[in-house]
Amino acid sequence: MESNFIGIHKKFLRHPLGREYEMMISPPIPDNRQAPYGIPPLGKKIKAFRPIKNVRFHALDPEFHKYDNLEQCILASAIKAIDFGFTKGFACYGKKIKFQDL
Fold first, then answer.
1. Domain boundaries, position 19
2. Does some domain include residue 77?
3. Is the Cβ–Cβ distance between 49 and 11 less than 8 Å?
4. Who is most buried in 35, 36, 84, 102, counting CB within 10 A?
């Protein structure tokens, strides 16, 4: 496993084919040492993935112990990341996009 955190990119990324924007989140997949429902370790490092230690990302604890299976873990991580991202705000061409207080 390369990252122990849910990564949330601080900026929206513009999709190259139009006026669409992307929010980048990266939920970690636990191995079977981190959670009973985790996948077996691959035995080698995957070079495309790097630990979340970058100033471009927010990092959240995935809390693997709270879930019974991988599906619950991934779904909860995605919801947590989206909620955190819009609460904290995303940068988009110099503007901040975030939830408003009502």
1. 6-97
2. yes
3. no
4. 35
Model pTM?
0.78
- Residue 102 domain-assigned (yes or no): no
Residue 86 CB burial class (10 angstroms; 0-12, 13-18, ≥19): middle
Residue 88 covered by a domain:
yes
Residues facing residue 58 across a β-bridge: 8
Dig out the tokens for 3 from the structure. 């990252």
* Burial bucket for residue 100 (CB in 10 Å: 0-12, 13-18, 19+): exposed
CA angle 54–39–50, rounded 5-degree value: 15
Which tens digit of pLDDT belongs to each residue from 11-54?
888 877 877 888 889 898 898 889 999 988 776 665 555 556 67
Nearest alpha carbon to residue 30 among 14, 12, 44, 42: 42
- The tokens describing 80, both together, are 């947590």
Beta partners for residue 97, in sequence order: 90
